[in-house]
């Protein structure tokens, strides 16, 4: 039997190993079994070990335990472990690690407790493994137990163990303890600094993060690729932070942190993401084009950059190139990233194709993909398709699923259906969050369901503990304003617990325009100008308002303010998608290559329309 199995890998080395050293032969066979995740080969290896009388060989047993764990049979590993009379720390580690890799974390901690009760002491590998598990589970209590055991055994002075403990505390939200461990370390490596930098960054302490990086350099520790990838997400927002990002990019180039190496593809993705979030998607594309090794994550980062920048055409083109040119197959994250590109210009056909792709790849039951599909179909005008995705019995709905469908109903003016679905969601035991609340209130606003909307608002605030947000408040103002209750809307704004933002005053402006309340318009515009002094649309709108009232002095004053601030309103734009290409048009635009043909057609249409008007007048007079 064993000779037949070895024939799977024809090699003189295996044959000679089996002939002269049976232990080495079994080891090679176990290694082969683990690589190919073959339970059958692992059992054959186990049988051979028993036949050769090596059942108490701890080294072979360690490899056998690992092989069973790789084949997702951790309890078979436990049987091998229990059959051994003498158990060393390596056997314990192999068994614990096997349960961890199979997601059986409770059993792993039970084994650790049994280890601590035996005459064998845990080593650095045991402690660092279980510290990592505690961090992933976000459970600080067992993590503290590991920390205590590390201190009693002296392994807390081990750099790897200390790094694992710090990481655990950071992931559990106990950053103070992590910093305490760092300060008590006698020997630190780049990984130690990286853990604390990541902790600062995740906890939102941006300024402290940069100060800590300076301390790292003063300590003569060189930032590595992981350090840079942790810092790049902090480099969006204002110009100063963007300059930090450019400096980090220069550091990458200067220190030859090559983006083409597989291990540093993550660094390239972080650079693309940083530039995209800083509205420098063109620079992000340059980084992407220069990457020698581009996996699905790099493609997805670039696609997502175009989507967030509003360039749906380029996002979809890149999505096609990813599969046709580089042969990279889309995964769950890339599908979720590209679906909003279909929504932005009503690319229903492309959205359906992506939906079909997800079905072929058996990803259509992934809740995150279904949520994105519901949102895409709703925005493309195909509410029935969104409903079909939502009502699929195989879909395990979460709060986002319900919110997406509720928002879809609201977008199509079906307020009653949105409320019924909201009530059904509550009956299933899912509590509303801010997104759900905004969705259902928007639906009530568009459908004129003021009473129902106010009742829902009161319920989420008083019964579910949801705090006021600008989005929720803007929905209430819009709902009251659309119904003509402008004074009530203004009273609501005055009573808000949060400072009214542009969305709130913008909702009041829209309602004031609908109902022709010039005084309320002027009031709302004055607050908008205070909040958005660099937004030219506000100045143009209030100037038009003054002009309609023949207040020419006020118009001149607003125009002077715009001139002083060097503000210029961007022209309005309309677009149409033909053959997967979006054509944009501005007022009096002649930049389009077919502009002469377009204007000729427009002249023909105007002539036809004027002839029709003349004909109707003649018919009326006769």
Describe the structure.
The protein is mainly α and 622 residues long. It has 35 helices and 2 strands. It has helices at residues 2-6, 12-20, 22-35, 39-51, 58-70, 74-82, 89-101, 105-117, 124-137, 140-153, 159-171, 175-184, 190-202, 206-218, 225-231, 239-254, 265-277, 281-290, 296-309, 312-324, 332-344, 348-360, 367-379, 383-390, 399-411, 415-427, 434-447, 450-462, 470-482, 486-495, 502-515, 518-531, 536-548, 552-564, 595-621; strands at residues 573-578, 581-586. It has a two-stranded antiparallel sheet. The longest helix is centred in the last third of the chain and has 27 residues, at 595-621. It starts with a helix and ends with a helix.
- Would you count the extended β strands for me? 2
> Mean of the pLDDT scores?
85
Radius of gyration computed on alpha carbons:
32 Å
Distance between the termini: 106 Å
Sheet bearing the most strands, described?
2 strands, antiparallel
Classify the beta-strand content into a percent band.
Answer: under 5%
Given the structure, what is the number of helices? 35
Alpha-beta content class = mainly alpha
Helix share bin: over 70%
Poorly predicted regions are: 1-18
Gross morphology = elongated
Q: In order across it, which strands form the biggest sheet?
A: 1-2
In short:
The chain has 622 residues and is mainly α.
List the helices and strands and how they pair.
Layout: H1 2-6, H2 12-20, H3 22-35, H4 39-51, H5 58-70, H6 74-82, H7 89-101, H8 105-117, H9 124-137, H10 140-153, H11 159-171, H12 175-184, H13 190-202, H14 206-218, H15 225-231, H16 239-254, H17 265-277, H18 281-290, H19 296-309, H20 312-324, H21 332-344, H22 348-360, H23 367-379, H24 383-390, H25 399-411, H26 415-427, H27 434-447, H28 450-462, H29 470-482, H30 486-495, H31 502-515, H32 518-531, H33 536-548, H34 552-564, E1 573-578, E2 581-586, H35 595-621
Antiparallel strand pairs: 1-2
Helix pairs in contact: 2-3, 3-4, 3-5, 4-5, 5-6, 5-7, 6-7, 7-8, 7-9, 9-10, 9-11, 10-11, 11-12, 11-13, 12-13, 13-14, 13-15, 15-17, 17-18, 17-19, 18-19, 19-20, 19-21, 20-21, 21-22, 21-23, 22-23, 23-24, 23-25, 24-25, 25-26, 25-27, 26-27, 27-28, 27-29, 28-29, 29-30, 29-31, 30-31, 31-32, ...
């Amino acid at each position: 039997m064993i000779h037949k199995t070895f024939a799977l890998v024809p090699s003189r080395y295996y044959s000679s190993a089996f002939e002269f050293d049976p232990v080495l032969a079994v080891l090679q066979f176990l290694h082969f079994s683990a690589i190919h995740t073959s339970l059958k080969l692992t059992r054959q290896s186990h049988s051979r070990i028993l036949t050769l009388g090596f059942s108490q060989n701890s080294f072979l047993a360690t490899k056998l335990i690992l092989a069973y764990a790789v084949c997702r049979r951790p309890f078979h590993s436990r049987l091998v472990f229990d059959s051994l009379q003498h158990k060393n720390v390596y056997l314990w580690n192999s068994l614990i690690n096997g349960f961890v890799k199979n997601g059986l974390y409770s059993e792993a901690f039970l084994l650790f407790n049994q280890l601590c009760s035996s005459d064998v002491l845990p080593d650095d590998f045991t402690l660092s493994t279980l510290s990592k598990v505690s961090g992933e589970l976000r459970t600080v209590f067992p993590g503290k137990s590991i920390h205590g055991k590390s201190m009693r055994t002296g392994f807390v002075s081990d750099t790897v163990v200390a790094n694992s403990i710090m990481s655990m505390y950071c992931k559990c939200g106990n950053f103070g303890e992590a910093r305490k461990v760092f300060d008590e370390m006698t020997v630190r490596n780049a990984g130690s600094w990286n853990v604390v930098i990541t902790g600062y960054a995740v906890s939102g302490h941006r300024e402290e993060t940069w100060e800590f990086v300076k301390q790292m350099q003063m300590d003569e520790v060189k930032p590595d690729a992981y350090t840079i990838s942790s810092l790049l997400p902090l480099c969006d927002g204002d110009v100063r932070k963007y300059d930090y990002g450019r400096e980090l990019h220069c550091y990458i180039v200067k220190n030859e942190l090559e983006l083409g190496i597989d291990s540093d593809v993550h660094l390239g993705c972080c650079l693309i993401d940083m530039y995209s979030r800083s509205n420098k998607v063109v620079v992000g594309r340059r980084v992407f084009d220069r990457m020698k090794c581009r996996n699905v994550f790099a493609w997805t980062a670039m696609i997502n950059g175009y989507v967030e920048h509003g360039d749906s055409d380029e996002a979809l083109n890149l999505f096609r190139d990813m599969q046709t040119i580089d042969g990279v197959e889309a995964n769950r994250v890339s599908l979720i990233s590209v679906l909003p590109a279909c929504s932005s210009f009503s690319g229903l056909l492309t959205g359906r194709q992506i939906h079909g792709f997800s079905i072929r790849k058996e990803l259509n039951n992934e809740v995150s993909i279904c949520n994105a599909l519901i949102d895409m179909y709703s925005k493309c005008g195909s509410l029935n398709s969104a409903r079909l995705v939502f009502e699929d019995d195989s879909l395990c709905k979460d709060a986002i699923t319900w919110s997406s469908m509720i928002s879809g109903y609201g977008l199509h003016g079906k307020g009653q259906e949105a409320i019924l679905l909201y009530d059904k969601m509550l009956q299933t035991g899912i509590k509303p969050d801010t997104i759900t609340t905004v969705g259902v209130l928007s639906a009530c606003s568009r459908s004129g369901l003021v009473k129902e909307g106010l009742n829902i608002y009161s319920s989420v605030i008083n019964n579910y503990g949801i705090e006021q947000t600008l989005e929720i408040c803007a929905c209430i103002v819009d709902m009251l304003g659309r119904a003509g209750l402008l004074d009530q809307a203004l009273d609501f704004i005055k009573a808000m617990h949060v400072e009214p933002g542009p969305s709130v005053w913008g909702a009041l402006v829209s309602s004031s325009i609908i109902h022709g309340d010039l005084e309320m318009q002027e009031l709302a515009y004055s607050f908008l100008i205070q909040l958005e002094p660099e937004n030219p649309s506000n100045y143009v709108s209030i100037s038009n308002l003054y002009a309609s009232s023949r207040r020419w002095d006020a118009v001149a004053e607003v125009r002077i303010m715009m001139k002083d601030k060097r503000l210029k309103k961007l022209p309005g734009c309309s677009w149409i998608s033909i053959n997967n290409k979006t054509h944009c048009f501005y007022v009096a635009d002649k930049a389009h290559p077919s502009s002469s043909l377009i204007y000729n057609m427009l002249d023909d249409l105007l002539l036809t329309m004027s002839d029709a008007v003349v004909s109707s007048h003649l018919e009326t007079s006769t």
